[in-house]
Amino acid sequence: MTNNMFDQQLATADYRLQTVSDSRLNTLACFTYLRSRFMKPIQEIYPLLSQMRKVVITTHQKPDADAMGSSLAMFHFLKQFGHTVTVVSPTNWAKWLDWMPGCKEVIDFDTNKEKANEALNSAEWLFCLDFNIFHRTKTMTERLKELKCTKILIDHHQEPDSVSFDYGISDAGKSSNCEMVYDLITESGNGDRINEEIAECIYAGVVADTGSFRFPSTTSKVHCLVADLKSKGLQHSKVHDHLFDNFLENRLRFTGHVLLHRMQVFYEYNTVLIAIPKSDLLKYYVKTGDTEGLVNYPQSIQGIKLVAVVIDRDEERKWSFRSKGDFDCNRFARKYFEGGGHFNASGGRSSDSLEVTVRKFKEALKENTSLLQ
Ligand SMILES: [Mn+2]
User: How many Å lie between the centroid of ligand 1 and the Cα of residue 154?
Assistant: First the structure.
């Protein structure tokens, strides 16, 4: 596709990057070109880092270790320059993330609107980390859209809403958002500012998003990053304890229960489905974050290409997808379950009942038979 053709497309008034179909826009070069039209490169903020500002850092709803880790790493980094920095989370987060340095200072928009709005109203810079379209912040969406301050994106999901940001970087090839924050710190010549707090936050996100260094996104650069963090005082075993050995008994019993009673294996599609009714959540006192990682267990079954977990939440049915090899989870989630994410990991939702959304999933499997062989 020539630049000229792109210019014609861009002239369309409500043109948005995410609405362009994969077939028309399927090369990295095209994305890079479009990105440059809407969002100035992140490198342009490097010289501005030393000018004191009021900064808000935010991330997606129900932040996970990478979202919280990258937000807090950025928080500790920016504070060193004398900026006034506030981290605002759209919602609550898993209790087992509370150990992260600075987590106690994070404002939950859902339960503390007054303080959150105060910070948002006076913000000169808004960093958006580990998400790339405002609706991923749920009830904060409209607030973020109306803010007039400078908006900066750092994200590793596919199909960013680039027009909504002034500066940024979007790279689906990165292992984690924490790796991208590390890149920003080191590329801007501030590697010596990485202290133990920043190192712990970055490491937590990298470990979580790479499945403990096993996913294909774990490049040699990721291992070099870890080596650098180690040389700066990182105690990695401490972080592993916090991430993996820090739960209550009910979570393990809940996991056992769903693997035994809710897991279905469809060998004809090399697929595993776990559908969790609300009654299970109540019986095992399941809290935010307790279902995280569940989707990874069935991947240990030989030959499995796709794992899907659906949870009956109050307001909607929440889907998680993981794939191995060439099955595109992002496309699958977008096509059938109003979601998206990465090639091998994505999420989605449905307003249907658990029964109906499971039926639709099985129909989707049928349609994808050839891709799942
Ligand atoms: Mn992430």
Answer: 10
